[in-house]
Write a structure and sequence with these properties.
The protein is of the alpha/beta class. The chain is built from 8 helices and 12 strands. It has a 5-stranded parallel beta sheet with strand order 2-1-3-4-5, with helices on both faces. A 5-stranded antiparallel beta sheet has the order 9-8-7-6-12, with no helix packed on it. The chain has a two-stranded antiparallel sheet with strand order 10-11. Keywords: DNA-binding, Phosphoprotein, Transcription, Transcription regulation, Two-component regulatory system.
Length: 240
């Protein structure tokens, strides 16, 4: 897909106030946003423009969100986030089964939606989305300068060794993605790394002690038992 300077996001919902709020938040994050209030309009926009991601309500006039998703999936694998007032597990499973990449139940946090949009775009268009110079999390509680390799916790510099920084960078540039120890070793140190993958646990422990308010109850780097680790980007921001 041809990419412009901005990612173009289509937001589809029959409630004007939701469209207005979501559009405002996404535009603040430098996305180009187009809105539609029914399924027919959404499909017309999809067919006429280069859309990079769709935020799609399920209960739409004219053509339902489920049908819109099915038709889009016939020709495109672009990321789709579904919005619904239905909280039942079966409804969520149905949404995923017809092609949604993510799912939010109304009422939802717009900040959380923005984080999920960024995470999906990063995974789908990795080659087109370079890491920003400075990433800020949780209203400045944690700040990471990728070029200068500087990490700050509550505005104070945190001393991470090189290997710790490499692991942290892998995790925070792939938010919500679970990495096994083996995959973290491969991505951070390369396939020829001769250390043990269990050393990752030590690095994670050290990172947590430096960036978490309580390393025993981490908010940023969490353990997914039996699978590995992932980074939770609370109130994610990008600084130019």
């Amino acid at each position: 897909m041809q990419m412009s300077n901005k990612f173009k996001i289509l937001v589809v919902d029959d409630e004007q106030n939701i469209l207005d709020v979501v559009k405002a938040y996404l535009e603040k994050e430098d996305f180009e946003v187009i809105t539609a209030m029914d399924g027919e309009m959404a499909l017309n926009i999809f067919n006429e423009q280069n859309i990079n991601l769709i935020v799609l309500d399920l209960m739409l006039p004219k053509i339902t969100g489920e049908e819109v998703c099915k038709r889009i999936r016939m020709s495109s694998s672009m990321p789709i986030i579904m919005l619904t007032a239905k909280a039942e597990e079966d409804e969520k499973i149905e949404g995923i089964s017809i092609g949604a990449d993510d799912y939010l139940t109304k009422p939802f946090s717009v900040r959380e939606l923005v984080v999920r949009v960024r995470a999906l775009l990063r995974r789908a268009y990795r080659d087109f989305m370079p890491m920003a110079d400075i990433l800020s999390f949780n209203n400045g509680d944690l700040e990471v300068d990728s070029k200068k390799m500087i990490v700050k916790k509550q505005s104070k510099i945190v001393n991470l060794i090189t290997n710790e920084f490499k692991i942290l960078k892998i995790l925070l540039t792939n938010p919500e993605q679970v990495f096994s120890r083996e995959k973290l070793v491969e991505k951070a140190f390369g396939v020829n790394y001769e250390g043990f993958d269990r050393t990752v646990d030590t690095y994670i422990k050290n990172i947590r002690q430096k960036i978490e308010n309580n390393h025993k109850e981490p908010l940023y780097i969490v353990t997914v038992y039996g699978m590995g680790y992932k980074f939770i980007p609370n109130a994610y921001e990008v600084k130019k």
